[in-house]
Amino acid sequence: MPKSILVPVDLSPVSRNALRYALKLGRSLSASVEVLYVVPPRSFIAKLADAELHRPVRGADSEAVKEAERELVTFISSVPHEGVRLKYWVDPGDPASSIVQEACDERIDLIVMGTHGRTGLKAALLGSVAQAVVSCAKCPVTLVRG
Question: What residue numbers bound the domain in which 25 lies?
Fold first, then answer.
């Protein structure tokens, strides 16, 4: 049985559903729940604008991470989590890679994450973090639909 559950969130209603599911599971299994919010790198367009305006080109800056931390605290406080050992943090980087790496580093037994259920052209253009995590994670992954 899982003793540690990782819940990657993007602060959407879909990820809130995944967090609720993971918390119920955590309570019933006496498992810890770890919430990860990955701040993706700045977009290619934003980097081009920085270069055009002769500003240093950078990834996710410390102010973006601080803002993400504030948003994550608000997000977590919107979901009752009494009775569950809860840990949460923000990680700058590529969402899928960061989720898989954190699951390995933290020795996670189960990943529970939301999926927007994109298919076809939307999935091809926007990519699917959930699909990449399912493909690369070394532990089981449970997907929760919105």
Answer: 4-145
